[in-house]
Design brief:
With 125 residues, the protein is α/β, with parallel strands linked by helices. The protein contains 7 helices and 5 strands. Strands 1-4-5 form a 3-stranded parallel beta sheet, with helices on both faces. It has a two-stranded parallel ribbon with strand order 2-3. α3 packs antiparallel against α4.
Length: 125
């Protein structure tokens, strides 16, 4: 099973290689993504374009990815990960989503790649 963070999604959309090709290869598997990371993708796209474009982009992503709702259990797990690592909260949610689902997290985010824990991460830079 595969999980994406916002770094991977943005790299895919912008065609940043080699990440874009690696993400494209797993899209047919409907990778997981936390709704917290969806929020991050939304605001990044909105800042580059406009709100309508960002909303449409999220709608399009919903048909290609599996959105994982950030419930209380996931929030506590993300909090634990963040408390033990110097990384952004959204990054902690990406790791929590992957580890909860026994998935490999695809990313190029340096904070995630430096993090320490019993989770599977693949550097796609």
């Amino acid at each position: 099973m595969i999980c994406l963070d916002s770094w991977a999604v943005i790299a895919w959309v912008l065609g940043q290689e080699p990440a874009a090709t690696q993400v494209q290869k797993v899209i047919a598997q409907r990778p997981l993504i936390s709704t917290v990371n969806i929020a991050e993708v939304f605001y990044i796209v909105k800042r580059r374009t406009d709100e309508d474009t960002a909303l449409q982009f999220i709608t399009d992503l919903r048909s290609q990815l599996t959105f994982v709702v950030a419930d209380e259990d996931l929030a506590v797990r993300a909090g634990l990960i963040k408390s033990n690592n110097a990384l952004a909260l959204a990054d902690a949610f990406a790791i929590a989503t992957a580890s909860t689902n026994n998935a490999t997290l695809l990313t190029g985010d340096p904070e995630i790649l430096k993090s320490k824990g019993k989770w599977k991460v693949r550097d796609i830079r």
